[in-house]
Amino acid sequence: MTSVRSIAKRRSRVVERTSSLVLVRFALIVTFLVVIVLATFPLIRLTRAVASLSKENRALQIQIFELEQQLRQLKAEQTLLMSSREVIAPAPNER
């Protein structure tokens, strides 16, 4: 009878150890998954911000390019106007 009890106790200890190992592994896996999910949210926000800034940057680059073209055109018009007029330079002693 005592041998049956000792065998039953050994089996229950084995079951306890096995279940505790399984629970620890499960807890570690759940913790790992929670950390991954929590780390994903800032990354998503950062990705959205980068996409928004990239879009805004592209729009600003287009605007800068258009303004530079406009400036070149205005300089060309100014040069054309100045060349069509007669420019009188002051004498060196009048400066």
Number of helices: 1
- Helix/strand order, N-terminal first: H
Question: What characteristic shape results from the CA principal axes?
Answer: rod-shaped
SS elements, strand count:
0
Largest sheet: number of strands, sense, barrel closure: none
Low-confidence stretches: none
Structural class: mainly alpha
The end-to-end span amounts to 126 Å
Question: Multimeric state of these chains?
Answer: single chain
Approximately what portion of the residues adopt beta-strand conformation? under 5%
Care to describe what's here?
- With 95 residues, the protein is mostly helical.
- The chain has one helix and no strands.
- The model has no long low-confidence stretch (mean pLDDT 86).
